[in-house]
């Protein structure tokens, strides 16, 4: 418990932690009571120095509830918008306190009292405005934070290729690996010319028994500071209609390969006192998914492994993140024999991942994907969750594989 609390409150100024605690109290205790239990006749809300009472106060309490909920999220995840938003909200409170005191007291005493009442909130607004580095996550590039070299598996297309471009953009030299040598070489040439970074390509099948070990041996001479365990495959269909060998390869690529690579490369990161490991999981890892049963199980493995390592390595200078996207615009759906159904741009998914690195242990890009991954299992039973998932997946599975 102590370590968990320390993780929440570390690296944040005391006044921000105080506001975080206050916002949490308001969002989860006071505002629900104020809105749903407090008698209407007693309800009062103030915005910009204007007092609302009765039902008008009930209505105006909802934006207050949203404000405090957003504050908890913004503080906890250090979102860049929190700096501007916090300064603006604190400034309007300062303005409201000034106006309220001047109007209610009047005269010189009211003016002086208004200034005194507004001053603490004005200072908070100023503090927000001066805290750009805190909410921007610092100015250091990924290369400066974690080291010169990164390794991206499954780099020949989709999310892996976008991870490579995003890392190279921040000065990280890259080992690119996948099965398709020609595509890797083309991406390497692009990165070298556009971003002036060094590259190395390693064509390897991570589904083979010795593939992960051969890849680890191929980068033994490099100090890998960022490991992106992105390679992954799917296989849509009912289990009794699927090929056993293909299922075994799926488990090897999605589970064994990231485990072996992480086990081989993390000791060097720990020795250097810095590094990052990213697992490309899936929102599917949150629940059982009929017609994608084995794939969902492998992504649950990645999720639990990554979140456990997040805690194990937290004090060693190593940041761990599990990226859990929903459908993405990549080759994955075709390769998994799914019926195509669109998805988010891969570049946007990668942006969310790198913005979150160093923060939470896992992230689901997109609010709808988050709801889909979490709502059913938190509200319903596990069988209900599986049936709901079947309804989502069955139309995306070829009829002959259902």
Task: Describe the 3D structure.
There is one protein chain. The protein is of the alpha/beta class and 402 residues long. It has two domains: 2-136; 142-401, Rossmann fold (3-Layer(aba) Sandwich), CATH 3.40.50. Helices cover 59% and strands 11% of the residues. The protein contains 16 helices and nine strands. The chain has helices spanning 2-9, 14-36, 54-77, 81-105, 107-129, 132-136, 142-146, 158-169, 181-195, 211-218, 244-272, 293-312, 332-335, 346-356, 367-379, 382-393, and strands at residues 44-47, 50-53, 149-153, 173-178, 199-203, 224-229, 275-280, 318-323, 362-363. It has a seven-stranded parallel sheet, with helices on both faces. Helix 9 links the parallel strand 4 (173-178) and strand 5. Helix 2 runs antiparallel to helix 3. The longest helix has 29 residues, at 244-272. It is globular, with a radius of gyration of 25 Å.
The residue-averaged pLDDT reads 87
- Count of DSSP H/I helices: 16
| Biggest sheet descriptor | 7 strands, parallel
Q: Strand-and-helix sequence, N→C?
A: HHEEHHHHHEHEHEHEHEHEHHEHH
CATH class of the largest domain: Alpha Beta
Percent of residues in helical segments?
A: 55-70%
Distance between the termini: 46 Å
The total of beta strands comes to 9
- Return Rg in Å: 25 Å
> How many distinct folded domains?
2
Low-confidence runs of at least 5 consecutive residues: none
Gross morphology is: globular
**Broad structural category:** alpha/beta
Corresponding CATH superfamily of the largest domain = NAD(P)-binding Rossmann-like Domain
């Amino acid at each position: 418990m102590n370590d968990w609390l320390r993780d929440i409150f570390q690296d944040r100024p005391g006044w921000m932690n105080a506001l975080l605690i206050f916002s949490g109290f308001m969002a989860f205790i006071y505002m629900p009571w104020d809105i749903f239990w407090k008698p209407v006749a007693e309800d009062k809300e103030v915005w910009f120095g204007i007092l609302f009472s009765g039902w008008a106060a009930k209505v105006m309490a909802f934006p207050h509830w949203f404000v405090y909920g957003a504050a908890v999220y913004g503080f906890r995840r250090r979102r860049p918008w929190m700096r501007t938003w916090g300064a603006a909200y604190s400034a309007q409170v300062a303005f409201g306190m000034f106006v309220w005191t001047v109007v209610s007291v009047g005269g010189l005493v009211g003016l002086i009292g208004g200034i005194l009442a507004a001053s603490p909130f004005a200072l908070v607004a100023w503090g927000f405005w001066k805290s750009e580095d805190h909410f921007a996550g610092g100015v250091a590039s990924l290369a400066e934070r974690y080291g010169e070299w990164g390794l991206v598996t499954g780099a020949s297309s989709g999310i892996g290729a976008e991870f490579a471009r995003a890392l190279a953009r921040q000065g990280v030299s890259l080992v690119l690996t996948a099965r398709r040598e020609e595509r890797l070489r083309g991406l390497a040439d692009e990165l070298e010319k556009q971003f002036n970074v060094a590259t190395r390509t390693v064509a390897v099948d991570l589904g083979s028994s010795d593939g992960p070990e051969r890849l680890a041996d191929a980068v033994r001479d490099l100090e890998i500071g960022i490991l992106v365990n992105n390679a992954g495959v799917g296989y849509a269909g009912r289990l009794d209609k699927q090929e056993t060998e293909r299922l075994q390869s799926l488990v090897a690529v999605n589970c064994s390969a990231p485990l072996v690579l992480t086990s081989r490369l993390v000791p060097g990161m720990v020795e250097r006192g810095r590094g990052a490991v990213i697992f490309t999981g899936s929102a599917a890892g949150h629940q059982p998914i009929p017609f994608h049963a084995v794939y969902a199980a492998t992504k649950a493995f990645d999720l639990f492994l990554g979140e456990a390592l997040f805690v194990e390595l937290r004090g060693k200078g190593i940041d761990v993140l599990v990226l859990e996207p929903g459908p993405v615009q990549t080759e994955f759906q075709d390769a998994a024999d799914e019926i195509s159904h669109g998805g988010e741009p891969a570049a946007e998914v990668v942006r969310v991942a790198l913005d979150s690195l160093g923060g939470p242990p896992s992230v689901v890009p997109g609010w709808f994907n988050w709801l889909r991954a979490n709502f059913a299992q938190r509200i319903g039973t596990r069988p209900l969750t599986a049936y709901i998932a079947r309804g989502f997946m069955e139309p995306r599975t070829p009829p002959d594989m259902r």
